[in-house]
Amino acid sequence: MSDLTLGSRHLSPGAKAALGAFARYGTIIGLLAMIAAFSILSPRAFPTLNNFTNVLNQASLAMIIAGGLTLAVIVGELDLSIGFAASFHGILVTGLIVQNDLPIPIAILLVVALGAFIGLVNGFIVTKMRVNSVIATLGVGTIITGAAFAYSAGVPIVSGVPEAFLQLSLGRWLFDIPNNIVIMVLVLGFLWLLVERTDIGQQIQAVGGNAAAARLAGINVDRVKTLGFVISGMCAALTGILLASRLGSGTTSAADSYLLTAFAAVFLGSATLRDGEFHILGTLVGALIIAIGFNGLNIFGAPTYSQYVFQGAILIVAVGMSSLGRVLAES
């Protein structure tokens, strides 16, 4: 039993309730406080519809990859391959379209299928070979990076990218909403329904809550954990595809930074509305906090290094609040 758990049991009911409220609603309060502060400090640039649309558009890819990661984390595992995989998928889909003349829909389907296969490999290594998920997915991610360099020789694939592929990410749909926002809403909406409103979603949550008890209840724990990795892999593939479309090129390390962003969003999300539980709505809130923070820093002309400091600090705070929520829930 941790010292934090022991300490929480000596708190008064009022103090425990206050800490519990902070653990559950602190992220939302922080998000609203950031919006209010940036709006006051920059009333002409920040609190505008165009800026909020831009924030959502810029954050949409991080939200998609973080949504997939949430499924892996819910089942009690970590997927460190997602950033490397997304970069590789961006190169691959661009190469298939430009160099192999594949129709855009076929290239996209093949790359998403590859993302599912990589997730399947991660799941097999973790559940059948009993390798720790951190080691397994980091190893797979490193192999994927090698494959990306082998495929592209380290040279970005830029020329010959068709306009139709660029419009996948840069185009706008209903009510002039950017396509990436629409796709993000559809993906996160599907993941939320899957986890919260289906039988397999209940199994996913049961495995994450107590794998041994879930196994005794007749749930195929290995299969459920593998499903979490497969969904994580597919979301990484979709993120890589959309990023390549946004950039107009495939680049070996284009999506590597999404790994830290995704983990920060997921852990911030676990400290939102629930007592240290990972869930899709929380991940969305976490990603919004990071995106709005970045947007505010850019508006005020903060140096680039400040974004890394902000993101690292957010990750530490997120894990701390998540741990506090779990301790208070158990005490």
UniProtKB/TrEMBL annotation:
<feature type="transmembrane region" description="Helical">
    <location>
        <begin position="280"/>
        <end position="302"/>
    </location>
</feature>
<feature type="transmembrane region" description="Helical">
    <location>
        <begin position="257"/>
        <end position="273"/>
    </location>
</feature>
<dbReference type="InterPro" id="IPR001851">
    <property type="entry name" value="ABC_transp_permease"/>
</dbReference>
<keyword id="KW-0472">Membrane</keyword>
<keyword id="KW-1133">Transmembrane helix</keyword>
<protein>
    <submittedName>
        <fullName>Ribose transport system permease protein</fullName>
    </submittedName>
</protein>
<feature type="transmembrane region" description="Helical">
    <location>
        <begin position="226"/>
        <end position="245"/>
    </location>
</feature>
<feature type="transmembrane region" description="Helical">
    <location>
        <begin position="308"/>
        <end position="329"/>
    </location>
</feature>
<feature type="transmembrane region" description="Helical">
    <location>
        <begin position="177"/>
        <end position="195"/>
    </location>
</feature>
<dbReference type="Pfam" id="PF02653">
    <property type="entry name" value="BPD_transp_2"/>
</dbReference>
<feature type="transmembrane region" description="Helical">
    <location>
        <begin position="104"/>
        <end position="127"/>
    </location>
</feature>
<feature type="transmembrane region" description="Helical">
    <location>
        <begin position="134"/>
        <end position="157"/>
    </location>
</feature>
<dbReference type="GO" id="GO:0005886">
    <property type="term" value="C:plasma membrane"/>
</dbReference>
<feature type="transmembrane region" description="Helical">
    <location>
        <begin position="21"/>
        <end position="43"/>
    </location>
</feature>
<feature type="transmembrane region" description="Helical">
    <location>
        <begin position="55"/>
        <end position="75"/>
    </location>
</feature>
<dbReference type="GO" id="GO:0022857">
    <property type="term" value="F:transmembrane transporter activity"/>
</dbReference>
<keyword id="KW-0812">Transmembrane</keyword>
<keyword id="KW-1003">Cell membrane</keyword>
